[in-house]
Amino acid sequence: MSFLDTLRLWDEAVTCVDRQDLTEALRIFLSIQEPNSKICFDIGCLHLLNQNLDDAEKAFDCSIRKDEHLAVAFFQRGITFYRKKRYEESLADFQHAFKRLRGNQLIDYKALGLRYKLYACEILHNMALAEAQLGNWEKAQEHLVKALDYKTDVKLNIIDKALQSTLKQKIFKPVEFPSKVLFKPNKHYVAELEKKDYLGKAKVVASVVPQDAFSGFAPLQPQVEDGPILPKEPEVLRALEGEPHTVLFEFDPETSDELAVVPGNIVFVLQKGADNWASVIFNGRKGLVPYNYLERLEISMASKQNEAITHQQGKSEPPTRKAPTRPERKPGLTPSDSSGDLQRKDTQSTDNSCIVKVRFTFNFAVSVPPGSPYAILIEKISKKLHLPSTAITLSINSEATGQIVINANTEMESVWSCASGRRITLWCNTKEQTDGKPENENKTHLVALHSYKSSNPEDLNFEEGETITLISRINKDWLEGQCDGNTGIFPASFVEEVPE
Q1: For the chain, which domains are there?
Q2: Are 70 and 61 spatial neighbours (Cβ–Cβ below 8 Å)?
Q3: CB–CB of 430/443 below 8 Å?
Q4: What integer pLDDT is reported at residue 433 of this predicted model?
Q5: Fewer CB under 10 Å: which end of the chain, C or N?
């Protein structure tokens, strides 16, 4: 599981805890593969809250094994042992937690994503309680007297009451960690998961749909003292040149003369060729798009009124420009070879096709005839991903809900029965193809230009000159990789790719 997937699930689980949905939070936590020490700690806290002491002990064991300096994990495991009446092991864990404070009065875990302060006097308080349960009342008093040296004004009453109880040889209550307080992922990393809109909302130039949803931009207007107050009418009409159409399906260009569009875009068709390719304009760019990917729109009344006003003012319409000649295309790239086939394909794509939305690293859609066999479906998706069909695994649902894999042996009637309104969503995973070569030959390797050391457990530490295997690219500044059996993230500027 990549770092981004782990981060996303971690954030979802913590959000569930915030809204008191502990069952769903625990389910999401347990679905994370290779959790770090903080996530193991969170899992232990939820088990402890549910009185699952055995599972809590295992989770805290895992947290300490991954980070032996995490004092709060020793403290929580000590509480778990105390509830299981294993007082000697509880005392040992409290002693380990106290040693990791290194003589400090407290540790504030806020910088690591946990809103909690672990006080030395509270650890000594619980050490005294464990000694009291073992019948060592003198040692219990010694720990409480020592706790007075580390006391704060807030914790003074707790130590005094415990000391009075030991003098009477009475058992007192332990100081416990608030189990609903969990480690949260770094907020800067979580912010990278959100989509950022650097352009903001586009200004409406002309209404082509009733909701005024237009994906263009307003032209720049001359800034002069005696200039016109309203924009020039020809500038507005220029944006409306051609017939407005809505894009029905995503189209990825294969050549430079084609135009990339996604469902919901509004394009203006300048010319439709006999081979079913249309010359369109979108956001000031011209290109070719299959006409059966488009659906014609009626111009709204607001635009028609603008045209009427223009004629009343005596302004002439802008001259229509002839669309550029369509460049020659290689054989086999045209959507159809004859006008009859063209008409049939257009009808099937818009009326009879089933739209398959595929959830992958990115989402995309393909259209296939309803009830298509597995071979047609996998061929469409493999062409979209530019991968062989043997490297693709399809499923009806996600990994989190338990995959139901689709393959050549699957009865496709049961798959298409899940479609709603000729639409169905499938999940897609891929595996690396080695073609008989060693697995590491297909991986990208990096060499460290500088040594990188970080105290953050999510980071990958390495020395100058070491080789790192690239796993994924977080963004332009951070990468995720593996080195010496360790996995983590690191700055991209610290490494360079090893040439093949």
Answers
A1: 3-188 (1.25.40.10), 234-312 (2.30.30.40), 353-430 (3.10.20.90), 439-497 (2.30.30.40)
A2: no
A3: no
A4: 43
A5: C
Given a contact cutoff of 8 angstroms between Cβ atoms, the answer to whether 150 and 159 are in contact is: no
57: left (phi over 0), alpha (psi -120 to 50) or beta: alpha
DSSP-derived secondary structure letter, 127: H
Which residue bears the tokens 């699957």?
Answer: 410
Owner of token pair 């230009």: 449
Taking the CB of residue 321, how many other CB atoms lie within 10 A of it?
Answer: 10
Amino acid code (one letter) for 302: A
The overall pTM is greater than 0.85: no
d(CA 358, CA 366): 8
Distance CA 68, CA 168 (A): 37
Identify the residue whose tokens are 């404070």.
101
| Average pLDDT taken over every residue of the chain | 77
β 266-272/106-108 pair status: unpaired
Structure tokens of 188?
């800067």
Distance, in Å, from the CA atom of 371 to the CA atom of 294, rounded to the nearest integer, reads 24
Instruction: Compute the half-sphere exposure of residue 340: CA atoms within 13 Å on the CB side of its CA.
Output: 0
Q: What is the pLDDT of residues 222-269, one digit of tens each?
A: 555 554 454 444 444 444 568 899 998 888 887 878 888 888 888 999
Rg (CA), the chain: 33
For residues 36 and 9, the answer to whether their CB atoms sit within 8 Å is: no
Residue pair 479/449 in contact (Cβ under 8 Å)? The answer is no
User: 445 with 376: CB under 8 angstroms?
Assistant: no
- The pLDDT tens digits of the residues spanning 382-436 come to 888 778 888 888 888 776 566 688 888 888 888 888 888 788 888 888 775 434 4
- Per-residue HEC secondary structure of 55-75 comes to HHHHHHHHHHHHCCCCHHHHH
